[in-house]
Amino acid sequence: MSYKPDESVLMAYLYGELSGEEKSAVEKYLKENPTAMKELESLQHIRKMLAAVSDKEVIAPPIVVEDSKQRFFWNAPYFKTISAIAASLLLLMVAGKMLDIQVNYSGNEVSMRFGKPATDKIVETLPQGLTTEQVQKMINSSMLQNNKIVQASLNETQDKLDASIRKNMAMNSTRVNNLVQEASRASQDEIRRFVATLQDQNQQVVKDYFQLSTNEQQTYIEGLLVDFSKYLQQQRKNDLEVIQTRLVSVEQNNSVFKQEAEQILASIIANGAAPNTSTTKSY
Amino acid sequence: MHSDTLIARAKQGDKNAQGKLVQLWYKRIYNFSYKFFLDHDLAMEAAQKTFISMCRNIEGLQDIARFKSWLYKIAVNYCREEARKKKNSRWVPFENVINIEAEESPRWEGSSVRSDNPERKFQQVELSDILQRSLMELSAEQREVVIMKEFEGLKFREIAEVLNVSENTVKSRMYYGLDGLKKILEKNNITKETISYEL
Known about the structure:
The complex is a heterodimer. Among the domains of chain A are: 7-49, no CATH class; 230-274. Helix content of chain A is 75%, strand content 4%. Chain A has six helices and two strands. In chain A, α2 packs across α3. The radius of gyration of chain A is 74 Å and the shape is elongated. Chain B is mainly α. Chain B folds into two domains: 1-97, Rna Polymerase Sigma Factor, Chain: A, CATH 1.10.1740.10; 99-199, Winged helix-like DNA-binding domain superfamily/Winged helix DNA-binding domain (Arc Repressor Mutant, subunit A, Orthogonal Bundle). Helix content of chain B is 69%, strand content 0%. Chain B has nine helices and no strands. Chain B has helices at residues 4-11, 15-37, 40-57, 67-88, 100-104, 118-137, 140-151, 156-163, 167-187. Chain B is globular and about 55 Å long. The two termini of chain B are 29 Å apart. At the A-B interface, α1 and α3 of A face α2, α3, α6, α7 and α9 of B.
C-alpha cells in the first residue's frame, strides 16, 4: 500500500511540526519520490527567500483608553432591538388606522381592503338576441353621430380660434401703432428739448467768452496806457534833466567867458595905461 | 518575551501592565499589519485599534496562555475591517498614484543605515520589496497565514485558533500560499539561480 502525504502533512513536516512515525513515513516517501522532494525543496527555498524580508522599526504611540462608560439599560443591544420592533409595530398600527385597512378571513379566502366595502358593481346588461348586423348598424350609426359631433365641435373651435386670432392681431397692431407713435412723439420732443438746451449752453459759453475777453482786453489796454504815460513822464523828466545840465554847463561857460573877457579887458586896460613903455618896449 | 504575570496584571486592570504589553507587542502587530497592507498608515491604524481593543477587553480574556492568539485574532479582524473600508472607499492615497518613473527608479532615499557592503544591502532591500509586493498578490486568506507562520512564528494550532478554522485548513492555505508565491516569483524571473547571491 503506497503512502502519499497530503499538503497539510507536508506543511507540518516543512515547519518541523511532525514527530514520530508520521515524520519517518514522510521522510521515506520523499526518499522514494524525488519529484515530491524537489517540490518540497522549492518551497523550502521560498521560505529562505522570505527570511530576507526584514521588520520595520516603529515606535508605539501612546494608547489612551477612556474609562468604561456607565452603561444604562437603554444602551443595551437587546433593549434597542425590542424598542425597534415595538416602534415598527406602532407605526404599522397607526398606518393601518389611518388607511382604514380591513382584513377578512372567511373560509379559504383572505381579503384585505382599504375603507368600506365597495357597493355592488354596476353591470350593464346588453339586450339579448341582437344579430351581428344590428350591432354593426348600431356601431355605424353611433360612429356617424360621433363623427358629426366631433366635426361640429372642430368647426366651432376652428371658428373661435380664427376669431380670437383676428381679434388679437387687430388689438396687437393698434397697440404696436400706439406704441410706435408714442415713441416717435417722445423722441421728437426730446430732440427739441435737447437742441434748445444745446443752444442755450452755446449762447452762454459764447457770452461768457466775450465778456471774459473784453474784460481782459480792457485791463490790458489800461495797463498799456499807464505804462506808456509812465514812460513819457520818465522821458520828459530825463529831457528836463538833460536841458538843465546843458543850461548849467552853458551858464558855466558864460561865466568862464565872462571871466576871460574880464581878464582880457583888464589886461588891455593895463596895457593901455602904460602904452609908451609898453610900445617902446615892444618895439 | 513577557511573563504571564504581566498579562495577569493587565487583566486585573493595571494600566502600567497594559502599557508595557503595548510596548512589547506593538512592533509585532504593526509589522503583521504592514505586511498585510504594505501601507504604513493602514498598518498604524489597524495596530492602534488592536491595542485599544486589547486594553478594553483584556479583562474578558479567559486563558492567559492564549493571549498571543487572542491578540492576533483582534489584529486580523481589524486588518480585514480596514481592507473592507479601503476596498469600498473611492479615495486613492497620493502614494498609490502610479508613477512609472518613480517605480522604475531604485529607492535611494530608503537606504538610511550605512552598511559595510552597500551593494549587498541594496540587493537585500530590493529583494525584500519584491517579496512583499509578491505577498500582496496572494489572496487575503493565504496572506494572513503566510505572514503569521513565516514572520510572526505562530504554530499552526495558534493560527487555527486566530482564524477560527481547522488546523488542516491552515496548513492547506500555507501550502497554496507558498506555492502561489513560488509561481509569482517565477513569473517575475526571481528564481533560485537569479538570487543565489542573496542567500
